[in-house]
Amino acid sequence: MLSVAREMNCSETAFLVWEDDGFRLRWFTPAVEVALCGHATLASAHVLWDEGAKVFRMWYSAMSLPYDTPDTHYSVCYAESDDGMHWVKPNLGLVEFQGSRDNNILGFYKDYAPHNVIKTPYDPDPARRYKALGEVEPLDKPITFHGAGVSFSPDGIRWTDCPHNPVVPKGPDFSDGSMILGWDVRIKKYVAYYRPGRPQYPQWPGADAIRTVGYSESDDFIHWTPTRPMLVPDEKDRVDSQYHHINVAQDGEFYIGLMPLMQTHEMTWDVYLLSSRNGFHWTWVDRNRPFLGRGEVGSYDAGYLSASAPIVHDNLVWIYYGAYSGSHSYVSSNPASGLEPLGRATVALATLPVDRYVGLLAGPRPGFATTRALTFRGSRLMIDFDASLPINKVPPDHPAGAQVRVAVVDTQADEIHGFGIAQCEPMSTSGVHEVSWGGADLSQLQGQRIRLRFEWRHAALYSFQFKE
Q1: Where are the beta strands (DSSP E) in 117-188?
Q2: CB under 8 Å to 349, separation ≥6 — which residues?
Q3: Per-domain residue ranges for the chain?
Q4: Which CATH class is domain 28-353?
Q5: Is the torsion defined by CA of 258, 259, 261, 266 positive or negative?
Q6: Are 11 and 352 in contact (CB under 8 A)?
């Protein structure tokens, strides 16, 4: 059950495990509403916090109605925000639409690559400070010119398509759809998650492909390694399941993945949380419970969700996502879904505290957990937990009150003298705490192989961290 964590300036990272009923992870506020008298949504990794400019930046898709007609305009647009909640769509004057350039359009979707935008201030070429990867399908060119395309920009607004597009042609390495991690600081390469094409993906007999997720690397953002199948539906999934895509972010030594699990019977999906230590081999945090679940029929996100990669900012994790009220279909809708075939598309936001993706919850019956053997540097142990609401007003040492204690044990699980459960000062209020054992000096155990044993009740335990 070990899962994602965020590194906080020390040698060991925290563990996080799936939360049980009783802790709410979702707070929603619509971020960008309808644009261009049609639909506005996120389809890829479109939102980032620009630390240099101190602003949120969003590249989103907008569609004018009716859909799938000669008059349809499916465009890429730009917006920005100081606080992540209230967005401004600047008048860019770049693209003519309906006889005017007074709009925030960057280009049109079918032959334009700025999706999955990343900022790369380390690039020595100022014209390539922003990079984008997406699907290019020029309407005036044959399929040999279709595939994954990349673009470059000095400011995230004025883009130049790579003359070598498509950098990954349609075929075994690319079918359609693409997501990008960006620069992987661990392996010092760019990483993209392409949807493999024929013959790599599995197929139903006489039917179309089953959506899967592949993996590719690049040193220069132009030349990509052959796509390797990475996540493929198996016997643990519902029989009509498909893996639509995955959006990934690095957080400390972990990779965090948000993957929509598509159910083709209803043409709907929820988003599931996965974690990894290398960006290729993934662990489902909970295969039976969505991390971001659809809303009730009639709500803005009743059909399906498409999350951008998590952003850590201002002591919160920000997850922007495309929210669809209807099913993923442009022709018909399965009556079982209760949804319209084409509903309203908006952009929404979910937030949660840093390092609190998931937690291990104990109620009146105490919970116990012991870590794997580890070594550490530092003199302080910090833990983060959320205390349950008391049934009545009771003191912390009352059986109905929250309490967390920690022991340091050796590799044989025997308590180390001075650092036992009995010596640990109980903690009972929500937040980050420094663990104390009556003045015992934790730094004397640096470099030794130890384990931590947690004992807690009426609380959700999220993380631990050694600090100087």
Answers
A1: 117-119, 130-136, 147-153, 160-161, 168-169, 178-184
A2: 28, 29, 30, 31, 84, 85, 318, 319, 320, 321
A3: 28-353, 360-467
A4: mainly beta
A5: positive
A6: no
In DSSP notation, 335-384 reads GGG---SS--EEEEEEEEETT-S--EEE-SSPEEEEPPPB----SEEEEE
360-467: CATH architecture:
Sandwich (2.60)
Nearest residue to 325 via CA among 313, 335, 338: 338
Structure tokens at 289: 């419970």
Tokens at 429, concatenated: 């209020």
Phi-psi region of 165 (alpha: psi -120 to 50; beta: other; left: phi over 0): beta
Taking only the tens place, the pLDDT of each residue in 206-256 is 555 688 999 999 999 999 999 999 999 999 999 999 999 999 999 888 899
SS3 of residue 451 by DSSP: strand
Closest CA to 300 of 340, 344, 334, 258: 344
**Alpha-carbon distance 279 to 437, whole Å?**
38
Q: Is the CA virtual torsion 43, 320, 13, 367 positive or negative?
A: negative
Three-state secondary structure call for residue 183: strand
Q: What is the pLDDT of residues 110-152, one digit of tens each?
A: 666 567 899 999 999 999 999 999 888 877 787 778 899 999 9
pTM: 0.85
Q: Which two tokens stand for residue 405?
A: 């204690």
Q: What dihedral angle (degrees, nearest 10) is formed by the CA atoms of 366, 367, 368, 369?
A: -160
